[in-house]
Amino acid sequence: MHLRKWTAPLCIYQIGQHSTFVSSETFAEAKKRIKKALHLSNDIEKLVFDNDVLDESDTPQSNDMEAEDVIEIHIKKS
Q: Where is the Ubiquitin-like domain positioned along the sequence (predicted)?
């Protein structure tokens, strides 16, 4: 029986950092900024909100997001 190694999601609060999204910033711009701010070696694969992958051309404002909403950051595997 072969078991796949489970990788826990990156929790930016666990590593003492947090990131916010500017309401007018596209998710493509946010991905670049977050990768740089968190010093990630791998690219961000996708951003997920309420189990839906966010379109890179959308913004938090266009998705009617509120300040307390949480966006999942999925990192590409190396």
A: 24-78
Per the structure, the complete domain to which residue 55 belongs is given by: 27-75
Distance of alpha carbon 40 from alpha carbon 5, whole angstroms? 21
Predicted structure pTM score: 0.72
Q: What is the pLDDT of residues 10-33, one digit of tens each?
A: 444 444 555 667 778 899 998 998
If one counts the domains in the chain, the total is 1
Residue 22, domain member (yes or no): no
Torsion, Cα 57 55 29 36, to 10 degrees, reads -170
